Amino acid sequence: MSLVMTNAPDKSEPYVCNLDLRLRLGEVESEQFALAFKALSNPIRVQILDLISQGGGQICGCDIERHFDLTQPTISHHLKVLRDGGLITSEPRGVWVAHRINFGMLTALQGLLMLVNNTGR
Amino acid sequence: MSLVMTNAPDKSEPYVCNLDLRLRLGEVESEQFALAFKALSNPIRVQILDLISQGGGQICGCDIERHFDLTQPTISHHLKVLRDGGLITSEPRGVWVAHRINFGMLTALQGLLMLVNNTGR
DNA sequence: GGCATATATCGAAGTCTTTCTATGTAAGTT
DNA sequence: AACTTACATAGAAAGACTTCGATATATGCC
What we know:
By secondary structure, the first copy, chain A, is mainly α. Helices cover 51% and strands 10% of the residues of chain A.
């Protein structure tokens, strides 16, 4: 019996294929998660999401553009990717558009990470 | 005074640009997060990560390939993307390779989501 | 109506991703 | 030494992503 807690595989034991593994996540489910993570797979979009979270629901594109060396169409594109990934919602408000965090999606992503993090240990 | 808790912007108020927003995430930091999220931006890789978490550290490529209609080089590529994104580690163990979840990275990603989720509310 | 402001869309250029086939490497087996 | 098994790498084809300039739309103001 070892004195340290470990889940490291025993090098002396021959490997036996693990036949118990199951795809717990369905195709549709994993595609939805992948789409949301894809929205976060770009450093600019990670920073945009952080800016929106600081804005407390009151944020327009011009408040975002100011922080980056990118053109307005590019920022508009990144906001669309975040929207399509379900991470934000955008509501027209007169001449500008209010961008808000979709808390439900963030919570869902946290849930998936927790599932993997806890199952693995 | 309203009877419901809301952070919805007041439609009657004219919008004023929010000059207080700051990029809390540096360039290097947001690039690292983006790289990790990019690893999760594909449904196959989301499912692979889930399989590895179920394996408890004892998982080889053949245990993964069985579940997908993809060739061995393609699975090998996806594992490399997960590795480069810091989500798993892979240790050669004789003729096969043990893939393991990098719990620290999952926790870091959960932390970012929590930051955005909590700041926004 | 005419003009300014905020945002979206289009189309194009360059780059990166996904997947394959073919091939290489390295450990275990007979 | 030859063979099998597990995995990695190389190169190629198709498609997706990122960014831009140009242009369109739509609201608010004079």
